[in-house]
Amino acid sequence: TWWDALVGCALSCITFLVSTAFTEYIPARLLDPLNNVTIAFVAGVLSAAIKIAKPELNTNLTVLGAIAIPLPGYTISLGVGELVVGRIIPGMAHLIGGLVVLGWLLLGACLGAFIVERAADVPSYTGDINVVPAFWQALFVPLLCVGLAIAFQNSYRDLPWSVLCQGLSYCIVVGFSYLPQDGAANNLGIVASSIVMTLFSNIWSRWKDKPTNILLLPSVVLQVSGTIGFRGILALGQGNTDVGMQEFLRMFLVALLIFLGVGIGMVVLPPNSII
């Protein structure tokens, strides 16, 4: 809903400020775990508190919006990819590191929501929900693509190409989602999208004589599945075993599918160079 979007955006800004403050006062060896627990805790507390006034608020979505940046989807995907090609030690390091971050975030979010729920009566909502119309994605997705390109420090000359590559991969996934949903369509969409974004990045790399990672990395991050894993573990914690395991395992499946598509693209058309 619009309330979910507005609250999630506001909480994201607050958690960013909290995270920035942590870098100034917390020792380096404690920074990552304390930072992850604290920002998730703040998001959980504020989401549950706002839900008291707005019962229709989906606290799971608002917390996800608040902690979207530190979610370790890319790290977990990278670890899965390295394990597939036989790089056991770095693969396990990335995978375990990503799961540890996921655990700290989940601990903070659940603890924050638990405290508010014990201190006050947080209502449940069973009425109709007015979801945000799908056509608003036409505005949201370009903003997200531009934000990822800026986050990866793309130059102003490379930024339009990065946004185009991300948008192309997103459109392919959306297109496959309109096929009959037997489970295979979404998986094929992820593979096809990964192949196309890899080919696009490699063609651009050869044309511009630049590393393909400039375009490829933002596009991969757009597809990674950190939120799926977080929702899966959260569902497990709430007792929804079947849904939780399905979501959690899908995080690894998506990582494998992305790696498969990127690998096919690299074989079909090798890049000019890779950083």
Task: Describe the model.
The chain has 275 residues and is mostly helical. Helix content is 77%, strand content 0%. It is built from 11 helices and no strands. The chain has helices at 2-25, 28-53, 59-66, 73-84, 88-119, 137-151, 159-177, 184-208, 213-223, 226-237, 241-268. Helix 6 crosses helix 7 (159-177), helix 7 packs antiparallel against helix 8 and helix 8 runs antiparallel to helix 9 (213-223). The longest helix is centred in the middle third of the chain and has 32 residues, at 88-119. The radius of gyration is 19 Å and the shape is globular. 37% of the residues are buried. The model has no long low-confidence stretch (mean pLDDT 81).
H and E string? HHHHHHHHHHH
**Average of per-residue pLDDT values:** 81
Oligomer: single chain
Please give the radius of gyration in angstroms: 19 Å
Q: What is the first-to-last residue Cα distance?
A: 40 Å
Please summarize the sheet with the most strands. Answer: none
The parts where pLDDT drops under 50 for at least 5 residues are none
